[in-house]
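Repro case for the chain-ordering regression, as requested:
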Amino acid sequence: MKKGLPIAVAILSGLFVLAGLIFQPYLGPYLGLVLNWAVIVGSMALLVAIASLIISHARSILTARKGFIFSIVILASFGLSLVGGLWLGVDNPAYLKWVGAIQRPLEVSLLGLVALIMTSAAVQVFRNRGWSPLTVSFGLSAIFFLLIALGLLQTLEVPQIATVIGYIRQLPLVGARGLLIGVAIGAVMMAIRVLLGSERPYSD
Amino acid sequence: MSSLGMADKVAIALVLLALAGQLFFQSARRRAPYSKLRKVNAYQSADLLISAVAEKGRRLVLGIGNNLTDQGASLSGVAGLPLLKAISRRSLFNDQKLQTVSGDGVLACLSQMVTHGAYQNAVAVELFQPGEAVLAGTTRFASLAGLLPEVNHRANGGVILSGQFEGETLLALDLAARKNILVAGSTASLGGQAAFLAGVCNLALGEDYYAPAASLETDPAAAASLRAQDLLRIIIAIALLVGAGLTIAGVL
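-- result from build under test --
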C-alpha cells in the first residue's frame, strides 16, 4: 500500500494529462486544474528543498566546517532577499533593482568566464580526444562559422557565395533536429515506462 | 478528438508503436533482459568510475541538473534519477558518501527520497543524512555556483553529470580537468551537449541520455526501452528518407 499508492497516483495523473491533451475540448478545464495542483506541489517541494539547504548550511556554521564563511554569506544573502521581498513585495521596482544589481553582474561575469573557458576547451578538444572525424569536423566547422560570422565572405557580394553560405547555415539546424528527434524518442520511452509503472523516479 | 491534425495522428501512432515495442521486448526478453544489449560508453565509464572512486576511498559527486519544473521543463530533467538510484545502491557503505547536487527544488526532494530509499532498502536508514542530496540553487547560474565547490572538494575522486545542463557547465568541467578529476556526463540539452563534447571525454548524446539503468543493468524495463527506441529510430529514419524522396518526387 505504501509503495502502491504513489505508483497509482503517478500513473493516473499521467494518463489523465495525456487524455487531457488528446480530448482537450472535453477535459481542458480539468487539465488546467490538475496542472495547478502540480504547480502547488512543486512550490511546496521547492520550500522543502530550501529548508533543507538552510539546515545544511546552518549545520556547517555550527560545526565550523571548512569553508563555513561561505555558508554565512549564503544564509545572510538569503535572509536579506527574503526580508526585502516580504517587506517591500516581490514586484516592488526598488527591490527588483536591488536584487538585479547584485545578481546580473555576477551572472554576466560568469558568462564572460565561460566564453574564455570555451575558447580554451575548443582547442583542448584535439588534445583530449585526438584526431578523429568528429574532432576534425568540429574544428573545420568552428573555423568556417567564425569566418561566416565575421562577414568577410559576405563583403565579396557574390550571389553564388551567399546562396552557399545560406545553405551551409542550415546544416547546424539539421544536426540539432537529428539530436532532438533522438532525445524525443528517449523521452517517449521513458514516459511510457512511467505510465506503465516500471519507472519510478519518485521513489527508491 | 475531431480537432486532431495530421501531426497529432502521426505522434499518436509513434507513441503506440513505442508502447508495442516496449511491451514486446519486455515480454520477449524476460529471462535475459541484458543479453546482447547495446551499451552506452558514457555509462560504462561511469560504472568504472564508481568502482575506481570506491577503491581509492574518494568521494563521488553526482550532478542531476535542473529544469524539471523551471522554464523549459521536460521529462529529461528527471533522467538523472535512475542513475542516482543505481549509484546509491552501490555506494551506500563507501568510505566517502555520494554527494548529489541538483538545481531544482522538486529534483532536490526526489533525490533525497531516492537516497533515503536506498538506505531504507539496505536496512541502514539511520546512516542517511539529508546533506547527501542538496539543492545547489534555483537558477542555472546559482546551481552552477553550488556545484563548483562540490567539484572542488579535496576528497573528490570523480564527477558524474547527468541531467539538464547548459553551456555554463563548462566551468565545472574545466575545474574538474584542472584538478585531474575524472568526469562522465550525459545531457539532453543542445547547449549542454556542446559543452560536454569540449569538456568531457565520456559523454552520452541524444536518446542514449535516457539509458543509464539499461547500461548499468539495474532495470529490465529500461533495457526493453533501449531496444524499442533503437527500433523506433530506424523506423523514423526510414520514414524521413521516404518522406524526403516523395517530397522531391512531388508526390507529397
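Ordering looks correct now. Residues 56 and 73 of chain A are 14 Å apart (CA to CA).
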